[in-house]
Amino acid sequence: MVLSSDEASRFADLLASHEESLVTTWTDAVAASVRGRLGRAELQRSILELQRGFSAALSGGARELTDDAAAELRAHLSELSGTRARQGFTATETAISVYALKDAALQILDQGETTEASALRDYVAFASFVDRAALFTFDSYVRAREELIADQAEQLLELSTPVVKLWEGVVAVPLVGTLDSARAQVVMERLLQTLVDTGSPYAIIDITGVPAVDTQVAQHILKTVVAARLMGADCIISGIRPQIAQTIVALGIEFGDIATKSSLADALRHVLKLTGTKRQER
Amino acid sequence: MERVPVLKIGDILLVSIQIDMEDQVALQLQEDLADRIVSTGCHGVIIDISALDIVDSFVGRTLATIASVSRVLDAETVVVGMRPAVAITLVELGLSLPGIKTALNVELGMALLERDRGADFEPLVESEEP
Prior knowledge:
The complex is a heterodimer of chains A (282) and B (130). In chain A, 68% of the residues lie in helices and 9% in strands. Chain A is built from 10 helices and 5 strands; from the N terminus they run H-H-H-H-H-H-E-E-H-E-H-E-H-E-H. Chain A has helices spanning 5-17, 19-34, 40-59, 71-87, 91-112, 117-159, 181-198, 215-230, 242-251, 264-281, and strands spanning 164-167, 170-176, 202-209, 234-238, 259-260. A 5-stranded mixed sheet of chain A has the order 1-2-3-4-5, sandwiched between helices. Chain A is rod-shaped and about 95 Å long. The mean pLDDT of chain A is 83. Chain B is an alpha/beta fold and 130 residues long. Chain B has one domain (6-128): STAS domain (Transcription Regulator spoIIAA). Chain B contains 4 helices and 5 strands, in the order ββαβαβαβα. Chain B has helices at residues 23-40, 57-72, 84-93, 106-128; strands at residues 6-9, 12-16, 44-48, 76-80, 101-103. In chain B, strand 4, helix 3 and strand 5 form a beta-alpha-beta unit. The longest helix of chain B is centred in the C-terminal third of the chain and has 23 residues, at 106-128. Chain B is globular. Chain B starts with 5 loop residues before the first strand and ends with a helix. The A-B interface holds A 188-189, 192-193, 195-196, 199-201, 223, 226-233, 278, 281-282 and B 78-80, 82-84, 86-88, 90-92, 96-97, 101-105, 107-109, 114-115, 118-119, 122.
């Protein structure tokens, strides 16, 4: 349902003339739903901004939410839902911020005591405009939440793959958590880049924190080791728990001539022995 | 046609590839290196590929051939400075460059060659000392 220009201008007048009482009623309704998690002053400020947005959009001749005149209102709405999503409010609580405008407008119409038949039609048209605004808020809310989740997933990916220097020329990657293709790729790239940056010829991949090793995980680890070898560095796999060793054998995974150790300490000792004997040879 | 310079440093020939490895360039390098190993009598070759963004299967195979040829001429080849992205691509392609020694950088490559040659000569030196 599209607002006619008459209806739009009538409501713009209504919003402008009753600004104060409208904002108060509106804020009351929203404050009841968020139950003190947001300061009244802050709430009132955001509601006032929204009210001005509606008012500007309607008096600017917007007949639908997608019109150019409503661009500012849309920006206000998406900003509001973005902030609410990040603050952890539910979708309902966010949408009510917009829906409450309908109740507030109805109260003001009641006070005016207009009994004309056109008033009802006006109100329904206006209500459907507000509905669309609320739906838009809901969309923005979901989008903001999805962005939040994507950001967190990325942060998790970076957090969980540190490459640490153990000794002169020896770096270690303690893997924690399940290795999927995306994470394996990040681990591989980070490890190889660190090898280049630090010029370390030895790397220890510690899988103590990996809950299960299947053929795919083994494949990822093997690829990393082969890539490191191509670059001229040697990899040792450590932290293999008894259960994991049983699985590896049962699955028939071949680690070939890659050194495997049961603990990180063993792996470090192995590497130090290698570098030590080579120093003696020189 | 562009050519890759071959530098002699002591007992080592250093090749730093700074241009795109086209097939013709790779073949020319293979010939040049064989000539230089014979004319200088060097016992080590270091090929620095840190400037290469792309190593295709042909270049990979040429590197392997260079390594084999120089081994026949009693020179050890070390490929150094392979970029992580290149290594990952080669692994994904299933090319593990068998028979090629690698090191992270030129310095480690020289250390590797020195160690290998040193091991050959050490027993002789030790037997003369006492």
